[in-house]
């Protein structure tokens, strides 16, 4: 494959970021025709379709590779300018990161306070389930991600952060009403709190109980309340809307005060978390990674 002309690569990135050819043309101060010609020329050079011409446009799998390259190229150029003392007029370094809601609500923000702010760094956080944060890495939307996947995305390194512990809890009133019998039986029918349609944590917990997976069903009952915030999830459990798996730091105060009761004290659920980031020498990214790893070493559990 021939070398990739930088103006064409940057144009493709502008189209993806802006969503349309016309908007990209306005951002680049060129005509829409010029944008279209550059993208077509890049597709001819790579021999692949790079964009789906939808509204907004979406990169194909091959397009995601080029978009990721374009973002890394822009990051390297920015860092080189900073080291040379050449201002680019674009302000502080920006580090986009994908992180799951529970980490964001418990230990991740304290990690960011550890990042030195001389020179300043701006954080752009993308909230996504830990099982799907690597998708944002593949698409080139973020430079790093907190993820449950130990398998590195192409062009990324992986480091283990630790174990995030979840506790199965409910309000005492809820437990008395719905969970008076064997837990592995009652959890199949009791109302449950889930984060969103993709949240399988509660169902996995039920299936892992002795005898919990004997029915071969989905694990939890038909009454599922979707609460897509970490704090709201905990509050819904405290309010008695359903039972759920709550991060240990959020569950402990309620357990101590009596607002919550543990359903299976001897069966916590631990989720391994990892830090994936671009294999790219960037002072800003290195500073963020160091802060995240240091905070995780204190806030998360280590492997047994």
Any overview of this molecule?
There is one protein chain. The chain has helices spanning 6-18, 21-28, 32-46, 61-84, 101-112, 133-138, 172-178, 183-186, 201-208, 230-238, 248-257, 283-299; strands at residues 51-52, 58-59, 93-99, 121-127, 144-147, 156-170, 192-194, 224-226, 244-247, 261-262, 269-278. It is elongated, with a radius of gyration of 23 Å. Helix content is 44%, strand content 19%. Helix 1 packs across helix 2 (21-28), helix 1 packs across helix 4 (61-84) and helix 2 (21-28) packs across helix 3. Helix 9 (201-208) links the parallel strand 7 and strand 8. Strands 3, 4, 5, 6, 9, 10 and 11 form a seven-stranded mixed sheet that branches. A two-stranded antiparallel ribbon has the order 1-2. A two-stranded parallel ribbon has the order 7-8. It is an alpha/beta fold.
């Amino acid at each position: 494959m021939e070398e990739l002309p930088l103006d064409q690569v940057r144009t493709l990135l502008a189209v993806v970021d802006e969503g349309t050819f016309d908007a990209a043309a306005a951002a680049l101060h060129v005509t829409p025709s010029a944008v279209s010609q550059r993208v077509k020329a890049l597709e001819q050079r790579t021999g692949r379709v790079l964009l789906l011409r939808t509204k907004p446009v979406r990169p194909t799998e091959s397009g995601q590779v080029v978009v990721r390259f374009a973002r890394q190229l822009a990051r390297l150029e920015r860092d080189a300018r900073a080291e040379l003392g050449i201002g680019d007029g674009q302000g502080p370094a920006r580090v986009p990161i994908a992180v799951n809601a529970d980490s964001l609500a418990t230990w991740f923000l304290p990690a960011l306070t550890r990042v030195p702010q001389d020179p300043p760094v701006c954080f752009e956080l993308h909230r996504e389930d830990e099982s799907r944060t690597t998708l944002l890495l593949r698409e080139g939307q973020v430079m790093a991600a907190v993820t449950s996947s130990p398998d590195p995305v192409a062009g990324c390194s992986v480091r283990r952060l630790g174990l995030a512990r979840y506790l199965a809890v409910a309000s005492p009133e809820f437990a008395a009403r719905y969970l008076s019998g064997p837990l592995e039986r009652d959890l199949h029918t009791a109302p449950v709190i889930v984060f969103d349609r993709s949240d399988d944590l509660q169902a996995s917990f039920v299936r892992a109980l002795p005898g919990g997976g004997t029915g071969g069903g989905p694990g939890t009952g038909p009454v599922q309340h979707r609460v897509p915030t970490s704090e709201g999830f905990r509050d819904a459990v405290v309010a008695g809307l359903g039972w759920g798996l709550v991060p240990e730091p959020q569950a402990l105060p309620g357990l101590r005060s009596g607002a919550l009761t543990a359903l299976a004290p001897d069966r916590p659920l631990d989720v391994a978390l990892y830090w994936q980031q671009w294999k790219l020498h960037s002072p800003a990214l290195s500073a963020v990674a160091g802060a995240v790893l240091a905070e995780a070493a204190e806030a998360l559990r280590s492997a047994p």
